[in-house]
UniProtKB/TrEMBL annotation:
<keyword id="KW-0175">Coiled coil</keyword>
<dbReference type="InterPro" id="IPR004331">
    <property type="entry name" value="SPX_dom"/>
</dbReference>
<dbReference type="InterPro" id="IPR034092">
    <property type="entry name" value="PHO1_SPX"/>
</dbReference>
<keyword id="KW-0812">Transmembrane</keyword>
<dbReference type="GO" id="GO:0005886">
    <property type="term" value="C:plasma membrane"/>
</dbReference>
<keyword id="KW-1133">Transmembrane helix</keyword>
<feature type="transmembrane region" description="Helical">
    <location>
        <begin position="495"/>
        <end position="516"/>
    </location>
</feature>
<dbReference type="GO" id="GO:0016036">
    <property type="term" value="P:cellular response to phosphate starvation"/>
</dbReference>
<feature type="domain" description="EXS">
    <location>
        <begin position="579"/>
        <end position="750"/>
    </location>
</feature>
<feature type="transmembrane region" description="Helical">
    <location>
        <begin position="414"/>
        <end position="435"/>
    </location>
</feature>
<feature type="coiled-coil region">
    <location>
        <begin position="131"/>
        <end position="158"/>
    </location>
</feature>
<keyword id="KW-1003">Cell membrane</keyword>
<keyword id="KW-0813">Transport</keyword>
<dbReference type="Pfam" id="PF03124">
    <property type="entry name" value="EXS"/>
</dbReference>
<dbReference type="GO" id="GO:0000822">
    <property type="term" value="F:inositol hexakisphosphate binding"/>
</dbReference>
<protein>
    <recommendedName>
        <fullName>SPX domain-containing protein</fullName>
    </recommendedName>
</protein>
<dbReference type="Pfam" id="PF03105">
    <property type="entry name" value="SPX"/>
</dbReference>
Length: 750
């Protein structure tokens, strides 16, 4: 792979604009090459000259002074300044501080020198851009490191307070004599307290090499030991209480802040949150280090290309400047990574360095061949079953049979539920594929536990397995009904769809650690949060799921039909009276508006908490959709359709369509920007193919206009530009605030 493609593939998407523009500089070098090829001498003369010069150079090289095998001996001529020097690089001083770098091209008077002069100007612009961004990010991580240090000091004090609830700040010197250390970089527990019992019951004690008292005191003196500032806990609020409906109602009734109880639950939650902050902070340091290395490599590559094209020797001078600059000489990030590793290993990995680094440097999940084989096998079987069903229908002429209408009214809606779910899972698999393809850190954005997120292969495996199960039920249903030997088992035949639904629900709620239990429970928890939307703090997974549920209205109606068909209908005779029931008609409307109602109350909750009017406008959008769905459904159920209801249905549907389309395309995606560098899109595009964005906009318009939002592939566009570090800058606060150390305070799209 060429370096340009490899360079683009290794970029951090959120920092893409801050990288060196390699392709732009390469295009200038191509202009220089074309100019030189256009103005060079004829080929025969050039070949002769080259051959002659090559022979002379080889002959002259035999008479050069020998420089020595170790390069320690240098002739006098090498000590002198190079008369063929091409460039001079200097840093502009601004207020005594080293500023931007400027390169002076000394050969601008030569033919074609204006192209090379332009190249070095653009090269300086790119280098100064990279240098400024790197300095800015280093300053940010240093500030974040200070905040994490404060949190570690508070955590240390909290650990001591939990284990010794009667201890006071004045007693810390005594605790220090007993082996407690509050320094965030040197937490230790060398001697047992409380009558020989372990002081920390919530976690394993960090085992360290035993030292004599003199050695221990020397180590403490070397580290400038300070007693643990327990009074810092007076200024700390730990929101470890689970965000439950009862807790929310209590906060509404009584808004006073509760004091710390110094319980083990508080300590455990605080440790989990700070652990997550450490992992993500270390990940940011690794990406910052990679940013520095990739840009240095890019400058090296482009300068070597310049030397090769112009036959000059400017790369050595320029790269020496790069090495001496802050970009090449700074080691703050490397040192900070070492300190983070030591702190994490000591305080959160029980001194086990291998275990700690395994958490800080998670390895890429190994792709298992059996998953690829199984989803391929299930997909092939599903396709074969579809073909078998089509052949069976045509062979038995079922489309013209007397029971065709009865089957489509009663049985088809039962199996269509699985079709909607499979289609949704296939689209989600596509989203995951594109997220990984364009290096979007969706596992952190959604708050998945490290290593438990499902890849697109796993999602395809589940979707193909469900489709195989549903299609097997369909073809067995047809065979049992048509086969004279099993035709008498009519009741058993009609129960096949219900049996499939029970199997799916049983697997979903299975408590055993099979079939991706962590992901299943994560989904169940998000669904529960959506149901209790106004009573739970809105996080990205919750409103993302609620947003997707709005495209599954027909699936919810199919689920309602299950209850009606098997509860009140005569399924043995394949008949139902659902359409005649007023209760069913009311529930038909309620079920359709539930997903939009969830999003509406989520927007209201965020409006109250964040005081942002955008959430209120977003809530009005969903309220308009609720009105449109309600009026349109009422109109469709009328036996004698009136013109008044027709006008109301058309008006509300038109308003909902326009507001939803505008909000999705302009507000959520940031597209249709007239002044964008990409026509009618936005400046920053994660997906390089612009046609994908135009197709997504057309699809959204058709989806809203048709009122059948079953497909949600456009979420890959919507969430593909969510920042990789969403929440890292926000999650590192000065206090041990569990709500701020994590993804709950992330700045999410509306």
């Amino acid at each position: 792979m060429k370096f340009g493609k490899e360079f683009a593939a290794q970029m951090v998407q959120e920092w893409q604009e801050a990288y060196m523009h390699y392709s732009k500089l390469k295009s200038i070098l191509k202009d220089i090459l074309r100019f030189k090829q256009k103005n060079k001498e004829p080929l025969t003369m050039a070949t002769t000259t080259t051959t002659t010069k090559g022979a002379l150079n080889r002959r002259a090289s035999l008479y050069r002074a020998f420089s020595g095998l170790t390069n320690r001996y240098k002739p006098v001529s090498a000590m002198k300044n190079n008369e063929d020097e091409v460039i001079l690089v200097s840093a502009v001083q601004e207020g005594g501080v080293e500023g931007d770098y400027q390169t002076m091209f000394l050969m601008s008077g030569e033919e074609g020198g204006e192209f090379e002069l332009l190249f070095f100007r653009r090269l300086d612009d790119e280098f100064n851009k990279v240098l400024r961004f790197y300095k800015k990010k280093v300053e940010e991580v240093m500030l974040e490191a200070d905040e994490l240090s404060k949190q570690m000091n508070a955590l240390t004090a909290l650990r001591i307070k939990v284990d010794n609830p009667v201890v006071k700040g004045t007693d810390m010197v005594n605790l220090a004599d007993k082996g407690f250390s509050s320094n965030s970089s040197s937490l230790s527990h060398s001697h047992p307290i409380n009558g020989g019992k372990q002081g920390w019951t919530h976690m394993d004690v960090i085992q360290e090499t035993e030292m004599s008292n003199e050695e221990e005191m020397k180590e403490i003196d070397d580290r400038h030991f300070r007693p643990a500032p327990l009074d810092v806990l007076d200024h700390v609020k730990i929101n470890v209480e689970l965000e439950t409906p009862i807790a929310t109602l209590r906060s509404v009734i009584k808004s006073s802040k509760s004091d710390l109880s110094f319980s083990k639950q508080e300590l455990r939650t605080a440790e989990e949150k700070i652990t997550q902050a450490f992992v993500e902070f270390y990940r940011k340091l690794r990406l910052l280090k990679s940013y520095c290395f990739l840009n240095q490599l890019a400058f090296s590559k482009i300068m070597k290309k310049y030397d090769k094209i112009t036959l000059r020797n400017a790369s050595k001078t320029y790269l020496q400047m790069v090495d001496k600059s802050y970009l090449g000489s700074s080691d703050e990030v490397t040192k900070l990574m070492g300190r983070v590793e030591d702190t994490y290993v000591k305080h959160f990995a029980n001194g086990n360095r291998r275990k700690g680094l395994k958490t800080l440097r998670p390895q890429a999940k190994k792709e298992r061949h059996r998953i690829t084989f199984l989803y391929g096998f299930f997909s092939g079987c599903s396709i074969a079953l579809i073909v078998a069903i089509i052949v069976s229908i045509h062979a038995r002429n079922l489309l013209k049979s007397q029971g065709r209408d009865q089957y489509m009214v009663n049985i088809f809606p039962l199996y269509s539920l699985f079709g909607y779910i499979v289609l949704h899972m296939l689209m989600y698999a596509g989203n995951v594929f594109f997220w990984k393809r364009y290096r979007v850190n969706f596992s952190f954005i959604f708050g998945f536990k490290q290593g438990t997120e499902l890849g697109y292969r796993e999602v395809l495996l589940l979707s193909s397995g469900l489709s195989l199960l549903a299609l097997a039920g369909v073809i067995s249903h047809l065979d049992m009904e048509m086969d004279p030997r099993t035709k008498s088992f009519r009741t058993l035949t009609e129960l096949i769809p219900l049996f499939l639904l029970i199997v799916v629900l049983s697997v979903t709620f299975c408590p055993f650690n099979i079939i991706y239990r962590s992901s299943r429970f994560f989904l169940i928890r998000c669904v529960f949060h959506c149901v209790c939307a106004p009573l739970y703090k809105v996080t990205l997974p919750d409103f993302f799921l609620a947003d997707q549920l709005t495209s599954q209205v027909q699936a919810f109606r199919s689920l309602e039909f299950y209850i009606c068909y098997y509860g009140w209908g005569n399924f043995k005779e394949r008949s139902n009276t659902c359409e005649e029931s007023e209760v069913y008609k009311v529930l038909y409307i309620v079920v359709a508006i539930i997903p939009y109602w969830i999003r509406f109350v989520q927007c209201l909750r965020r409006l109250v908490e964040e005081k942002d009017t955008a959430h209120g406008l977003n809530g009005l959008k969903y309220f308009s959709t609720i009105a449109a769905v309600t009026i349109r459904t009422i109109y469709s159920h009328q036996k004698q359709k009136t013109k008044t209801w027709l006008v109301l249905a058309a008006a509300t549907s038109g308003i909902a369509t326009m507001t939803s389309t505008y909000w999705d395309i302009v507000i959520d995606w940031g597209l249709l920007n007239r002044n964008s560098t990409n026509p009618w899109l936005r400046d920053k595009l994660v997906v390089p193919h612009k046609g994908v964005y135009y197709a997504a906009m057309v699809r959204v318009h058709v989806t809203h206009f048709s009122g059948n939002p079953y497909i949600f592939f456009y979420t890959a566009i919507r969430f593909s530009f969510v920042p990789r570090f969403a929440g890292v800058e926000l999650c590192i606060e000065t206090c041990l605030d569990a709500a701020s150390v994590g993804h709950s305070n992330c700045a999410f799209p509306t």
